Amino acid sequence: MTGLRFCMLTTFYPPYNFGGDGIGIQRLSRALVRRGHQVTVVHDIDAFNLLHRGPEPETPDTDDGVVVRGLRSGAGALSPLLTQQFGRPVLNGARIRGLIRDGRFDVVQFNNVSLIGGPGVLRMGRGAVTLYEAHEHWLVCPTHVLWRHGREACPERQCLRCTLHHRRPPQLWRYTGALHRQLQHVDAFIAKSEFSRSKHREFGFPRDMEVIPYFLPDIGGNERAPAPAPHPRPYFLFVGRLERIKGLDDVIPLFRAYEGADLLIAGTGEHEAALRRQAQGLPRVHFLGRVAQDRLADYYRHAVALIVPSRCFETFGIILIEAFRHGTPVLARRIGPFPEIVTRADGGMLFDTAKDLLGCMRLLQEEPAVRHRHATSGRRAFPELWSESAVVPEYLSLVARLAETKQGSRTEIPREETGS
Predict the structure, then answer these.
(1) How far apart are CA 165 and CA 147, in angstroms?
(2) The domain defined by 5-215+388-418 carries CATH number 3.30.70.1400
(3) What is the DSSP string of 115-181?
(4) pTM for this structure?
(5) Where exactly are the structural domains of the chain?
(6) Torsion-angle region of residue 36: left (phi > 0), alpha (psi -120 to 50) or beta?
(7) What single string gives the DSSP state of each residue in 1-58?
(8) pLDDT (tens digit, 9 = 90+) per residue, 86-122?
């Protein structure tokens, strides 16, 4: 049975990528290929280079069967800057339309389109089933992250002032209704959590949204054998980009007095220098830098817990389910989608203040039975809720329903892949 032809349009895609959205798109694309579908990813290299410091990454020869098309306009940073200002792919529009036309895709999925095409790209589906996956809050927030004035999770709109605070040029198209006019070209919108769906609605997004979470590979027999603990002392783990919004500033000071374990920090980012200054004189705080995924698994497995202190409204939190997959409990701030995820799995504890976090740390380290219960619950919940086998059929089922509605069942979906 012939598979479907998918096109993924996104600003960032590994290795031209910064955060979890590109990795999530890559996982979905590879999973679809494994199920017999054809996937082409179109991403914007100029946009990556505009924001990236250092040499351009090497492009791999293959991506597990995914066809990857990186756009270069010939104008460098000017292309994404024009897209950001005008809300359409000024220099790459003809190329994108040509790729979609020649690909004759059954499904076109828009992901993070902020710098590859803005709202103007949403009309380029050419009769295919069209989806928009909201990896960030770009649909309702010019800065993507609902982090108002660089100091607080956004309680209400002050978009112009906030944009200027972030030193970004205002996007005039956001005040013309252009985005809402282009939404009609999208058949369905996907939020990554119930929280994110509610936050979109609260901030005025006019369309309904499906909730389909991120996923990770199934736990299988080809798992690498566990290695010895990568650190000589008990430790708590942080994984993520080092930015102010991630909340590590609240965690590091706790290790001035907490002597029972260390804090290991895996990741890099623009806030790293400030965090290192804060950690000076604290021998129990260790910066690991960027850690490869296979090595990171061992850091998860041997950690007392993963600490997730983010201060902002994230759309999901892939690192939480990474911890669950490896049998590691989570200590997460009570904000955004984290309560939804932690509570559903019973895979850890929530905190509001640094004092709360300190109490949770002590409880998990001093009461092994409590830690074991949360670790076991999270590990048990993972395959049912956030594994590839659980989530990809849910995604394909949505595609099937949309195809039946849009094309009168002309698009054929293999029954074994939809869970029907």
Answers:
(1) 11
(2) no
(3) TTTGGGGGG--TTSEEEEEESSSTTT-TTSS-EETTTEE-SS--HHHHHHHTT----GGGGTTHHHH
(4) 0.92
(5) 5-215+388-418, 235-385
(6) left
(7) ----EEEEE-S-BTTB--SHHHHHHHHHHHHHHHTT-EEEEEEEHHHHHHH--SSPPP
(8) 999 999 999 999 999 999 999 999 999 999 999 999 9
